Amino acid sequence: MTAQEMYERDKVAIQTTGLSGSMLMENAGRAVSDDVETKIEKHQSVIVLIGGGNNGGDGYVIARTLLNRGYQVEAWQVVSDHKIQGDALLHKEIFIKSGYPLQQLEELGTLEESLEQADVVIDSMLGIGVKGQLRPPFKEVVALVNKRAAYTIAVDIPTGVPADESVSEFDGLFANHTTVIAAPKISVFLEHTSSYYGEWTVVDIGLPTKKIPNSRRKLWGKSDTLSTFPTRQAHSHKGSHGKGIVVGGSFQMPGSIAMTAKAALRSGIGLLTIATTSNTVPLIAPFLQEATFQQVTEEGGFLSSANVVDWSQYNGAAIGMGMGRNQGSTTLVEEIFDCVEGPLLIDADGLYLMKDGLTQYSKRKDPTILTPHPGEFAHLIDRSIPEVMQSPFCLTRDFALQYGVYVVLKGPSTIITSPRGEQCVEVSGNAGLAKGGSGDVLSGILLALLLQSNSVFDALANGCMIHGLTAERLTESRHSIYDLLATDLIEGLPNTFRTFSSST
Questions:
Q1: 119 annotated binding-site participant
Q2: H helices of 119-250, where?
Q3: For a 10 Å CB count at each end of the chain, is N or C smaller?
Q4: pTM
Q5: pLDDT at residue 328, as a whole number
Q6: Which of 359, 364, 384 has its CA nearest to residue 374?
Q7: What's the burial of 73, exposed, middle or buried (CB within 10 Å: 0-12/13-18/19+)?
Q8: Phi-psi region for residue 340, left (φ > 0), alpha (ψ -120 to 50) or beta?
Q9: 186 among the known binding-site residues?
Q10: How far apart are alpha carbons 73 and 337 in whole angstroms?
């Protein structure tokens, strides 16, 4: 959610159901307290830092709830009394009338002494409405907390961290854990802000799901994959699971197309053809006995024309891996674009070669899928990589809507966008994937699932999860994030597929 979408959700909940702001605040504080209890022990010293606004109001409820449950808690109000208004003021009064002391920040040194003794700090100072640099006293308090060793838990969002995209200048509190209220905020998934959250969980506060607006964004989880995973009929045959073609490779880069092909085969595609140069075929054929080959015209060791290919016999294609970026390859991509029926996945060099032909995307009647990493996407839209990293949701959505394509923006938080602007985030995987060849493997997985699934969007999300979970499983057992290779991913696919296929 963006900050504005969260405000609208609260507003709709209050207006349509009779839930009051103070009830939602009580729900939020209690839900956060339940989550906090999984992180702390009764013997630990806890400080709750309370600001103004709704986030501060949650802090009064959290402090009261934990005190009621027998925890050692100091509640510190870090703003002046006139900043506490509305529902927050109500809960402040309930806290005081419950017989608990409230510390007020007058001198920073006094708070610093308490922080030095604290085992746990709960940050309930500022919420999702913050923009820009922090002002006193928050700037000084955040600096104090950041240099302490206490375990820090943020309520909904770490103080100072923007909820939304496109904000690069800010002061933020670094949390070990963040208890997110109702729904993850956009900044959970941005590279320059995600580290402030630490680990995070989401708690429900009772918002009416049937009434609140749909943001058309979701976090894709294992339950989503289980409910949408393609199934196989007992009497199916190789033609039932897709006949695909992968186009790419060159004498200088034969491994890319080989990994894509092998991953597609391991991911259940029924039949697969590799279209590549004649001098590339003998380099990869011994390792891919299950695939057939189509030699295409080459120029200087690179693909240049595929007029010899009968595209009508294939249900879908993936192109670009190891293709190179010479002029002949550009001609090839244009030919493929006009001829392929079914889903067309474009990756790697194909993304560069098609930049000047973006307007053609919307003319295809079948789905077109682009799978860039941030650098490739920045090149496509003529933006800098930092701009893409700061605003990946809105930039990919605008692009997908403009050109009628699916976009899979790869990264630690992979963002998948449909031509209608629907988005999901898939967060599996680890740093072991930060290595050449990982994207080629993903392209093969995606092509295979596209040809076995009823929904393009589901296939893309599931493929990203299969890819990420395989990396996680391998680094839990046989490999580390340092030595994991793309070819290891391919060999690890059977265990991941077995998990999902046995559960459907």
A1: no
A2: 138-146, 191-197, 222-228
A3: C
A4: 0.94
A5: 66
A6: 384
A7: buried
A8: beta
A9: no
A10: 64
